[in-house]
Amino acid sequence: MDDHKLKVFCIVAETKSFSRASEIVRLTQPAVSLQIQALEENYGTKLFNRSGCIITLTKSGEMLYKHAKEINFLYSAAEKEIGNFTGLTKGVISVGASSTIGNYVLPGVVAEFKRKHPKVGVHIHIANSKSIVEYLNAANVDVGLVEGEVKKQKLVAEKLMSDEMVLIMPPSHPWANKANLSVMALAKEPLIFREEGSGTRQMIEKYFTKHGISPQQIKIALIMGSTESIKGAVEEGLGVSIVSMWAAKKEKRYGTLKTATFKEERFIRDFSLLRRKAKESSHTVERFISFLKSYPFDKLLSS
Question: pTM of the predicted model, to two decimals?
């Protein structure tokens, strides 16, 4: 069947880019081109106009795109209907998750889901929130899980749970035995931050500004490219930082890091569940979504 080729074709048509499509479907760009070439040979016509970096659908391409979307929808609808009839939960679910959820929350959740539904394979793709939205719109993942603010676009966004951002420090730090601190105390403390443009960094700077600390007052000791590297630097006593309570869970349990909340107000953000508006989810995907919505996440934090 040509359903995979049609899916790749739709992604190229929607992104107007072979290179971007190759990132989304996780194939090399030549492999994507071969998929399109096979379709063009099958239909005996060009599907795309290529003029430099600009890619547009030909008239034939527009006709195929219309039917390809319907075909992809029908495949999903058939799978869902048969799954509902048989009651079997099997197949593969593709989940797009931003880094905090993908690295620190999903492993435990997916393990429990797999114990209940051993015939289901779960593929987790970790990327930034913008990429997750693109993957969903291109139907390359079934479900998206992201942190922070979400631009819904063509998607349905639902709050899944709350996440608290906490201050982390080494056990030898003078603040190590304090349960909460004023954010103003951080103006004089060396901070370890994510790179500029990071969603987490922007959220922290926004929180600081709200409570009277301008970006110019922040003493940045180090800039790191990941939460794991930040935690390592804090453990070495190079500064303090702010991370998700989920990211600090293991280190807090083993005593390699201490955490504190903020006196002014809790630093809360939401984890959101994203899905496409069209009702095309399979029976297995619906089961997974229901599992997520009813999951007692607090249990993971206390374990």
Answer: 0.70
Q: Do domains 88-161+270-302 and 164-265 have the same CATH topology?
A: yes
Query: In CATH terms, is domain 88-161+270-302 a member of 3.40.190.10?
Result: yes
Segment 233-243 shows an average pLDDT of 95
Q: Which residue has the tokens 């994203």?
A: 274
Q: Residues 4-44: pLDDT tens digits?
A: 788 888 888 888 888 878 877 777 888 888 889 889 888 99
Residues contacting residue 44 through CB under 8 Å, at least 6 positions apart: none
Fold (CATH) for 164-265: D-Maltodextrin-Binding Protein; domain 2 (3.40.190)
Residue 255 structure tokens: 């005593």
The average confidence (pLDDT) of the chain is: 86
- Residues 146, 148: Cα–Cα separation, whole Å: 7
Does residue 219 sit in helix, strand or coil?
A: coil
Q: What are phi and psi of 158, to 5 degrees?
A: -130, 140
Asked if 106 and 95 touch (Cβ cutoff 8 Å), the reply is yes
Q: Class assignment of domain 3-84?
A: mainly alpha
Would you say 164 and 246 are in contact if contact means Cβ atoms under 8 Å apart?
no
DSSP letters along 152-192, please? -TTEEEEEEEEEEEEEEE-TTSTTTT-SEE-GGGGGGS-EE
Query: Which pLDDT tens digit goes with each residue over 40-66?
Result: 888 999 999 887 778 889 999 899 988
